[in-house]
Amino acid sequence: MNNLKIKKSLIPCLNLAVIILAGASFSSTCFANDITHSVRSDTEQAGSTENYLELGIMYAEGSGPSFSDEGNWDGTLLIINGSYNWNGLFVENYSESGNGIVFGYNALNNDNWSLDLTVTTEWWQKNFDNNGRYPGINNQYYSEPLTVGGRLTGYLGNNAVQFSVNQDATGDHNGTTISALIGRSWQVRNWNFHGIVGVEYASAKLNDYYVGVSEARVASPRFDFIEGGASAYEAGDSVSFSTEFGVTYPLTQDWVFRATGRVVTIADEITDSPYYVIKDSVATSFRTSLTYVF
Amino acid sequence: MTLIQQDKKTRVEINLITRLAIPIFLLIVCWFIPVSAKAETTKSNSSQLVQLKVTPKPCVALRKGQKCYLEVTFSWQHPQVSNYCLVNITTNKTMRCWKQQAKGEFSFDFQSRQSNNFALRIQESTTDIAQATIPVAWVYKSSKRAKSTWRLF
Lengths: 294, 153
Prior knowledge:
The complex is a heterodimer. Chain A is an alpha+beta fold. Chain A has one domain (2-35, 52-293): Beta Barrel (Porin), CATH 2.40.160.40. Chain A contains 4 helices and 12 strands. Chain A has a 12-stranded antiparallel β-barrel. In chain A, strand 2 and strand 3 (89-94) form a beta hairpin. By secondary structure, chain B is α+β, with helices and mostly antiparallel strands. Chain B has one helix at 3-31, and strands spanning 42-43, 51-55, 59-63, 68-88, 93-112, 116-122, 128-134, 136-140. In chain B, the strands form 2 sheets. In chain B, strands 1, 2, 4, 5, 6 and 7 form a 6-stranded antiparallel beta sheet that branches. In chain B, a hairpin with a 7-residue loop joins strand 1 and strand 2. Chains A and B meet through helix 1, strand 1, strand 2, strand 3 and strand 6 of A and helix 1, strand 3, strand 4 and strand 8 of B.
């Protein structure tokens, strides 16, 4: 068992070492390659929404409430970040945040404010897996509801505020989330730091869909670990607070390094569910990535 | 199969995906690596004996419009001893002058939002003997952090 644990922890470290080594060895040739690049066009409007695509690899580790007796996790995965905008319609993906592909329409856009109407089928599980609220939810057990939402983003100097509403549109659980965040970015030489604090409300229907336990389910062997057996549980609505601090550094004109730490509070309304073996009220995570920008 | 068992199965699958992901990623990365690196960073005039080099370059900022920072070193040489000056043509500022020298070196902390051109000149002259450029490049052409990256939940 111990051997297995050592093997598990070494693999991601080895992967990370390989990537860092590969990145370091390639950096000199890539730098030379940059010289052959023309400097990117200076004709784009400064505040315009950007079309971009980047491919990379990320190592992440963290801890938090868990459905098993292991509260720590880690892993290495491929990431695809990007957005493409066409006549107000857009598709975007930002793997570091954990949400899936988002399709949308930009209904309002000026120098300071942008309102997007969004549709996605990958919101809930990826989102909640990412912030540690419902760890280890397996896609085989739940369908991915179609989610519609709105996102209002304001840029006030180096600060950004964002308000989001998301609603299950297919009736799987009719859950709703409402969130607000304020972020700030600042530059120290070529290092770009950012900090974000935010709060999110999740409706009882949503929480109950994922962590509620019905009278019929309570007899499942799944809950044999609970002495005396589990009780049925109906989850209530919840409020979570979150903060993130990160740094982004352009290694070359094509390669970007990122490191981000995040802390999210997990409400008792969620972790009181019998599903949770580890009922921590805080989930922490650290992510570092290396991406190639096309 | 319990959820815990399923979780272990998922972890095994993730490890397999991880093992596949690394070589695929490196393969894609290699595709974009140039076959041969272009090492020449010097711009000089027609005479190969007059040389003005600046290393390293370019200066890369993350976003368009950001100030770019880079510690650079200029080195120059000329077949004749004379009074020479290194001039930033973009800002029309004399960086440094040398008296009765045939070569020199100068390091400084480059900070700019745009590419800068430099020239070696005879003191009090406006004729460029050799030129060099520090290009300012950026990764993202938008000056704003993408909306999708302002996410917590």
